[in-house]
Amino acid sequence: MADKYLLRVMAGPSYDSSTHQVVAVNGPDSTHISSEYCTANVNVRIQNYRGLPLGSPKSSPYFSSAPHTHDQYSIAFTLIPHKTISGNSLVFGNDFDYPIRDRLPPGSGTALHIVKWAIDPGLDGDVYSDKPHLYGPLLSSINLLRICDKVDGEKFEIPPIFHEDGISEGGIGEGEQLRESKGVPHDPSQRKKWFLHEEKRKDWEFEAGRVYQGDFFNPYIDFNDFSLKLPGFSLSVLGYIGKQDSLRYVLKNRDTGDVFFVVVFTLVPKEDTEKKDAKEKTSVESKGKEGKTDDAYQPKEDDVD
């Protein structure tokens, strides 16, 4: 059944789909996002990618180096907040605009329990509500976090610090000093555990104008068939999704609801894509014929000024 779909990844500064743009999965070019709340560059990598745009690389050098050799995907970003925000307020996770409780396959409750117990204890939310959501504090949920220097507070221009093989935990310049002054552990797993404590998160600020880099990745979700593969437990949702269903990741301020950016994964029926391509091809060919000059026609001398 999975071979009947193609994956499409979009990203943008809000929930409004009209603001979204296609992400060049596994490509070197970042998707640039700018809003009143932040400036960001987003990169998405997916192992064995089968999706849009057609002809996209199937993989990335990212998956050839530790610690990513077993990972299935990555959402990496460079972020500059435009206003200072509490470390307890900035969250990352999934949400939906409509109820999904009737579409959740058997075993979803067990899967959620495993995720919260073994993978991310900081997750909180309700997938059975009218507006399902599952968020975790960015400080304790993001796999890798790097703190960098500040930039010009008026331009908010992101420096060229993208790396094909991913980022590393730590800091650059003032960012490293800031981590040390707060006592933030250098090891990513210890940092995540450290920030599970609310008082630690409240003592941290994401400063306006400072550059932050994050990388969220894991080996558990296979986006080519929307399956979840946890330790000792597997779950496929492919047979339960509709044509408009998507999995949306969001970075937001949970206190105000302000959205920094979203990344949306959608399975598009291959048949629909083929029909669209055929329609566009026919349209182009038709326009070409309309504008074509008859080669057999030669203007008479009287026709030429």
Q: Mind explaining what this structure looks like?
A:
- By secondary structure, the chain is α+β, with helices and mostly antiparallel strands.
- The chain has one domain (2-278).
- Helix content is 19%, strand content 32%.
- It has six helices and 18 strands.
- It has helices at residues 108-119, 138-141, 174-182, 188-194, 198-202, 270-290; strands at 5-12, 21-22, 31-34, 38-46, 73-81, 85-86, 90-95, 124-126, 133-137, 144-150, 170-171, 205-206, 210-218, 221-222, 227-230, 233-236, 246-253, 259-269.
- The strands form four sheets. It has a seven-stranded antiparallel beta sheet with strand order 2-1-18-17-7-9-8. It has a six-stranded mixed beta sheet with strand order 3-4-5-13-10-11. Strands 14-15-16 form a three-stranded antiparallel beta sheet, covered by helices on one side.
- A hairpin with an 8-residue loop joins strand 1 and strand 2.
- The radius of gyration is 23 Å and the shape is globular.
- The termini are far apart.
- Residues 7-268 form the Domain of unknown function at the cortex domain.
- Pfam families: Duc1.
- InterPro entries: Duc1.
- Residues 272-305 are annotated as: Disordered.
- This is DUF1769-domain-containing protein.
Helix content: 10-25%
Largest sheet: 7 strands, antiparallel
Number of helices: 6
Encode the helix/strand succession as letters. EEEEEEEHEEHEEHHHEEEEEEEH
Number of strands: 18
State the distance separating the first and last CA atoms: 65 Å
β-strand percent reads 25-35%
Report mean pLDDT, rounded to a whole number.
87
> What is the multimeric organization of the chains shown?
single chain
Q: Helix- and strand-based class?
A: alpha+beta
The strand order across the widest sheet is 2-1-18-17-7-9-8
Radius of gyration: 23 Å
Q: How many domains, in number, for the residues? A: 1
**Low-confidence parts, pLDDT < 50 over ≥5 residues?**
280-287, 292-301
